[in-house]
User: What shape does this take?
Amino acid sequence: MKIAVYCVSDENYIKPSIVALKSFKVTNPEVDLFIVSDAVDKVEKRVKKTLLDENIKILDPKFRGKFKKSQKWPEEVFWVLGIPEILYEKGYDYSITIDADILCKKNMNLKNLTKNIAFIGAIKDELELGQMLNDKEFLNKEYGLKTADYKMESPNTGFVIYNNKYCHENKIFEKHCNLFDNIENKNSIQNVFADQGLLGLLIKVYNLSFYQLDRSYNFMVHEYDAYKYINSDIKFIHYTSGMKPWHSLKLGYIRRNPTLYYFRRDWNKFVDEYTEFNRDLTYKDEKDKKNEYKIKDILDIPLRSLVMNVWLPFWIKKHERRGNL
Assistant: This one.
């Protein structure tokens, strides 16, 4: 069985995509890695060498222009669903798409996991389908959707496993494109929450299979109850906030959710040990930041104690009173 793992990226996200893909390879060495992009020529030669050194293949699907009318979202986000069929033609049985702001921490036992995937496997998103689709009057008329349909649990696209053969045989990308074109032509695509909303709608309209994975496969750090999962068996950390782990520490984000601070340490440790990048994604031999990080890590000890032992308990009590937890 052959499995490919890929990130879809523009030139700005190729470096974090390398980190995300490498973390998958370190923990699941049987997979092959791809970056899906038509922008690799825009990055510096050093990054291209890193892709080569890490055996990350470049896949340009030639999709540029298929979704050009969407002004709200970068058109690359809609490419994701076309890649499994391309990878099927390359001999891959399953494909896994991950966001660039993900860190893989555990072996997935992919041989057993993929047995359950008829079409896709993913965790359910915190939003129901109806919360990702605003123009319900149009959708009701066009696709015969009812109020109950919008209560459907919809997949989060940060981590998705695809059955490539099923996608190929059922022409999933063609259905995806037709759905996009029809919605866009009726001036309603702005009311769909990116690839995630379109995938949920695709599942509902065509009655497709959605195998729900447990939360450990796509653990989103921004959620209010994330603190409950400290020291738990998390397979993937998904850094779903405006403060990505390669960004400078922003105390405003920590104030709103202290667990963001806790989980960024995992990303720092992986980058330090397994990559040629600094934590800000510059190259280590371009900027020697070892001493800077040593100082920051020493200062991190009292700050971590303050955040986790003082601010976090206060934060929990505050949100329990508000009914958020």
